[in-house]
Amino acid sequence: MDALLNEAISDLASSMVLGALLTRARERWGTFEIIDHWQQGEFHHDVVLQIADHAPTLPGSILVVATNCNGGVKEVLCLSKPPERLGLWHARCPDNPEFFGAVPQILAAAKTPHWFDPCELLLPDARSEYREEFREKQCGGGWVPRKSSPQ
Per-residue pLDDT tens for 76-123? Predict the structure, then answer.
């Protein structure tokens, strides 16, 4: 991987929090568009950005910024096109049968000290801030608030 391209991704990841990363992206490339946001369970978010004027400092125009529930940046991925949500998770957790779809080609990546195996968040005994009677399992794993209140 080209050192200049990897440096841009590492620089973004080193900002450590989403707000600072977005500020740094704006300083580097001027404008960007947030094209998607996905939450997996309580503790993982993926923010998908499109950087219009990315060349020559990025190998692709799409950034996926993985954060924890507090906006702490865990990982930054660079791709040439937006990933399918379930395909991205299939790449992360290939043994999980609930994730499927096209696995994106990752052109550059950087992890931060906030990173840990995201598959751990999806286990049946994963920790939760929700009391058991007020939560349900999300597709693929992780907890979300129950859609209807227990009787």
Answer: 999 999 999 999 999 999 999 999 999 899 999 999 999 999 999 999
Q: Where would I find the H helices in 30-117?
A: 85-92
The reported pTM is 0.92
Structural domain containing residue 106: 3-115
Residue whose structure tokens are 């907890």: 143
Q: Tell whether 143 is covered by a domain.
A: no
Q: What is the DSSP letter of 144?
A: E
Taking CA atoms, 125 is separated from 107, 128, 135, in Å, by: 33, 9, 13
Residue 143 main-chain phi, psi, to 5 deg: -105, 140
Strands (E), 7-84: 33-40, 44-50, 62-67, 73-79
Question: What's the domain count of the chain?
Answer: 1
Beta-bridge partner residues of 145? 135
Using alpha carbons, select from 57, 60, 41 the residue that is nearest to residue 49: 60
Question: What is the C-alpha to C-alpha distance for residues 29 and 103, in angstroms, rounded to an integer?
Answer: 27
Q: Does residue 91 lie within any of the structural domains?
A: yes
Residues 6+ apart with CB under 8 A from 20: none
Quick one: which of 7, 64, 76, 17 has its CA closest to 37? 64
For residue 61 the two structure tokens come to 């125009």
